[in-house]
Amino acid sequence: MGQVRKLRYVDSKLGAPTSGQQTTRVLFHTIENPGTTTQLNFFENFQGLTAGQTNLTQNKLDSMESMVIKTLWFAQFGASNGIQQWAANNPSVVDIIVGNQTVVKGLPLTFNNIGESFDRIHNNSGLSLLSTPGGGSPGRFINKFLPTEIRLLTDIVIPPQVTFKVVVRSAAANYGDGAVVCAIGGYGKIFSAGASF
User: Fold this and answer.
1) What is the mean pLDDT of residues 141-154?
2) pTM of this prediction?
3) Closest CA to 156 of 134, 185, 127, 113
């Protein structure tokens, strides 16, 4: 079942509106200064976050909106030096919780964090890249890390007005003094005013 049909099916089963504007949807959430911890709860606390740190105000979609999650994206930013390696390469797993159900449980991020991708589409995900800086002499390198990304093989639906969160668990991983970001992307429907616009 394709993502469009699955979303339509779930919406109709729940009595949610099946009309609306189809769209590519990306939801993101930032946790500032996470430090060393065993668990990160994304899409849970929105207090004090700006539009550049999240594009939601609560951990559920509006009554006329729904989405299918196709990708998970994680990045760790240092306070002063850009993207860092996720959790200092400590093993971690991710759970996705929709409503009161865990729909993805214990999905390991480690493989995608060091360049070994589950789906082989993002085979450089999280990998440390070495590149020569502009105008720099040979032998001088900048260490760059790519964000960690996972493409899900199943269609995970977030229905309208149902809470959701993404939880990353690890054994006391160091996430630094900057920020960590989680983004979920996929297909969605947003409110459509119909003939009024």
Assistant:
1) 71
2) 0.78
3) 185
